[in-house]
Design goal:
Elements: H1 9-13, H2 18-28, H3 33-44, H4 48-58, H5 64-74
Length: 75
């Protein structure tokens, strides 16, 4: 999968961004965390860990600063 993450800082800081809404919809439709993470990676890039962190941020399980920390580690 493509490891280059395709979402910018402004989007990640916006809790109402369409990307976050999309992830919330995937969860509310009954998709498993692994299915959601796979779709995130396929569509938005990043590693498996980035996808998992992004999913958790979208679902308000983690603060967004943890996603930034994860992205910085992967640079």
């Amino acid at each position: 999968m493509n490891n280059q993450f395709k979402i910018g800082k402004e989007t990640l800081l916006d809790p109402n961004a369409i990307e976050y809404q999309w992830i919330r919809n995937l969860a509310s439709d009954g998709n498993s965390p692994q299915q959601i993470n796979t779709v995130i990676q396929r569509c938005l890039g990043g590693t498996a860990q980035t996808a998992d962190t992004l999913r958790k941020v979208a679902l308000n399980k983690l603060p967004v600063h943890q996603l930034f920390s994860r992205l910085k580690e992967e640079e």
